[in-house]
């Protein structure tokens, strides 16, 4: 049976929640990911992870919010940005809606780092809600996992269209990756971006930060399995009240 | 080639827009649709129409905003509602993002009537924007089309989980329809709903308004074709400056 | 004795509410209504209806909010528009104020169709209020009433400065109607208005949609009586808990 | 001919503005005014002054915004309060609407002191508007005028339902004043009100602050003439660019 | 021991509050004060008064909010203005934070008249809070105190960089006053400022309103003592439940 | 001469800005910092750094905004939290004010990590401003600096009341540090905090995360010098247009 709320009737949804009162809300972005990856990378990965976690735990997957806070890519074709406070409102109103139906935990499975502060604010805004809690999941132990599975360094702690994301995409949706167009680019560290408000789009020509050419499906699958297990554990433990 | 921005690289997106500077943003809701239909009906139908229109015109389809203004179903399992002003912000911020990339028209293809006022406000809010316009498409000539293709009357002008929506779903995603659970329900006209603020969920036991049992895929396909043609004409004429 | 709160002392107001705990808040707009009608049509009609309903039921009439959501007439002299969310706030804050004084129901008697979505949002926003409910009244059964009493068709479901509104004005305030300037205008159906955000002011030269020349006071009075009775019934039934 | 926009057609409005590009927007409140005065005092007086000023100058009177910031009377029957920021939005949106029609000055003629800060914020918010300015008129030289025409002192600088307001009402609408119920009340100075947030309603039993029994129509008429002349001068001088 | 929360550990803060559950939040502005006074006058004076009051009563002083509503000085170098509603939010969120720690009263000690309406709105917004109240202190009996201690008249009720403020500064921080640059300026009364939205900066060349040359430390100290005593009494009486 | 705007006259401020068109706005928080440190640590350190940087570069120091986003300490005595969006508004309105006076760069020198996302949003919100830019400075190269100068590890990347902050305080304001009360506490890693919305106050008994007992003034001074030099370089390079 499907784990996706989109394909469930209200009664089938209610039954799943009665058994396991948690949903996953995939978050990400619609934004440029270089020459070789599609605009939907952050959502596609979040949805893939959400499905695996749901299958492992019994949680139900809500439709993904496809737009995130992507201000830094505002001039790259196809990139959509919503304001951080709008995204926060969407998350909170979704959780408040579901709180009326017996859902006790909303797990945000996120594929886009720039959503993180918003997720944190949302989780805190609802922390005192009598019925529901919001949890934030973004590639747990990312640094360690990459250190073990990726060959190229990331660019100042940022993962974007690089060996990491490309490998995950090769594992999840290889038909959407055009490795012939994958490149390696490590832009200069830029004060405007790190200490001012300069958009990322002015830094990298290709839209890649790192070395996408080293990506493989095997690396991606290995990392996905680690993330899935870690996140599934989180879901199970939270729901078990640990 | 795909018409969906989610699966396009930034360059492929830019190429499509250079040829035809219009996108479609599917809108709908995640909300109850009776015993026999899934929560995602309004999005599934909007996505299906969007794809057909895009294939007919050259427009590009953005990822759907899966949550709409569904206050009336707040107590039905799986129904998510965002506030009208939040939805308006998501629409406007999406359009403003795309205006920077050469997109000149955003067509909202909507599967959920309760989003209509919000769509109107969004279209007006951006009407003076120098680069982009927002257009609103919701089942054109609905009354006439239903009069010709449906056997059962609608319930006070409302289409929800009825012969109409069920037929469309049978045409688009028959595997998601469980006709054995389809029912007929015409609740009493209710002053609280029509003149007050009473949620729809208190009116209908089944969540159906009308007679879903009469739905067929043939009716659905016939109506879809009419809508597709009408909306595709709108897209072409607007983009041609007519 | 007057039914208008504006002319009542606090004690007289309290006495009326103790007997019948409902108020009417007239809504409308200050906006162009052609060559032959004054800017205040929508408010004048709402006030006239409110007074009749109050006299029939015992409800008390609050001062009218004279400005509505009139974006579509933004370029017509004398037309004032407030944002939909501002109007919603005025309605809700008024109702919340009155809830502290024993008022249990606020009936919005509206003379301007474009306020309808806002009224709906306001009614829902306060639906869970422990003490007060908001009800929405806008020319009940309008289509049927016009079909019986008006000779000319309306323009795509819209009533504005036409036979209908002009007849009502002739019944209520004939000195404010200049029938010599009444005209007939049926603009072409316009995609920009119905599917985009184009202001109405760009469609009609005269500001009339329909045939104002056919208006008579007799038609107006007949329709006013029907509306009054229907709305007065609504007020009585709601207050009786039906 | 009427000076009230409510009763003018769009063309008549446009003609008046072409001759004299100023409107008056009456502000006030719907709130308790003791046993002897109606809830609408602040609006009735603002409307009366607005009419006199308009007749003297050629300005046009907009419909009054009948609700003001009346938080302090929240527990007195019939008193309505809107939030200060909502009132500010109504004022600014009204002015912005009229700026499109050739109106160059909006004069706020106010009958309710608690609106003053909001009027100031609105005037400043639009001070850089290219086309329109907002002006604030509230009983000019109030202290001096009262000193000359009233016998009883006011209560700590506040005028409410006292000799002053009652005299004005006797001049403007004597039928709405019940002098048999007029009282004298000078509540103790209250720290909660002046230095905290205590509502006024907890201070005065009668709702009167001062001595209403000394009011006469002659005093009221004398003061009205002074105010009218002073405000009309302001309107003329502002419009003359002085 | 210090009275300033900034220098107290959490335990020391808690002990002080356990003994005397009130804090003082100094408010003011960073804005021009003529040739002879520094930008921080309004904060420096508020902090000085706060310290004296705290020492006299046992209240604890919070760090000052250094920015106020200073729109009128927007073009004078170094003047910072925050919107009135932003300042209101800062005050209310500060009070709500402290309500969780046993604080029962927040006394706003203000050095900048233009903050007054905001302080009033904040005090009212929290008046129903179950745990905390906000109180507003701005130079009590200012008119009488100045009449007794200052030689020069104020300018239409306004104190700014004049004999009054300069004297207080000479008492509190003489090293920050350059009396050689003190001037006397009484600008013409200006309709734009008093009845419109004109910034104060367009009225006075020097930024002084009044006669700063007459200021002395002795006058300042005398007035400070009066204010301190009056405000300390207010603090004590409020906390004693009088 | 002082570098603090608070103590400068408007003319002195203008002169400094004419020479060097940059200001520093210190940010931080008023929140618990264990048994041994005062509530003002984050502001005291930001102010100290701001002064050193200003003296080194010619920039001018604005008064500190003393309240930050401190939700996680909401239950610790004396901790004040403002909402992230309120803080963002204060920053942006301050920058917009100063843009009118020739200031071209606002450097946020921050002592409280939880303000970081807000600073980023503010810098981006104003990035297109024609006259001013906002820059974000928070302990540059923190990880490397600590690795070299501190003996104890930080707690999961967080610095709070630990060897690091205590050393800085010992260098800046030793009289405000009570080393006898300094403790070592490394709470268990907590899922509620890192993946949910649990306040930090529920994790650590002492309010310390790390080992404050190892702090020394020498370590603090060494690190301050590094930070000062790095930040002063940033200020100089930005103002030089590099």
Task: Give your account of this protein's structure.
Six copies of one chain form a homohexamer. The first copy, chain A, is an alpha/beta fold. Chain A has one domain (5-240): Creatininase (Rossmann fold). Helix content of chain A is 41%, strand content 10%. Chain A has eight helices and six strands. The first copy, chain A, has helices at 10-19, 41-57, 84-99, 116-125, 142-149, 163-172, 191-195, 217-239; strands spanning 22-27, 60-61, 105-110, 133-137, 184-185, 210-211. In chain A, helix 2 links the parallel strand 1 (22-27) and strand 2 (60-61). In chain A, helix 3 (84-99) crosses helix 4 (116-125). The longest helix of chain A has 23 residues, at 217-239. Chain A is globular and about 50 Å long. Chains A and B meet through helix 1 and helix 3 of A and helix 1 and helix 3 of B.
CATH fold type of chain A: Rossmann fold
What is the CATH architecture term of chain A?
A: 3-Layer(aba) Sandwich
**Biggest interface, chains and residue tallies:** A-B, 54 and 54 residues
How many distinct folded domains of chain A?
Answer: 1
Q: Which spans of chain A have pLDDT < 50 for at least 5 consecutive residues?
A: none
Shape type of chain A:
globular
User: Oligomeric form of this entry?
Assistant: homohexamer
CATH superfamily annotation of chain A:
Creatininase
Rg of chain A, Å, rounded: 18 Å
Query: In sequence order, what are the helices and strands of chain A, one letter per element?
Result: HEHEHEHEHHEHEH
Mean residue pLDDT of chain A? 97
Q: What is the percentage of strand-forming residues of chain A?
A: 5-15%
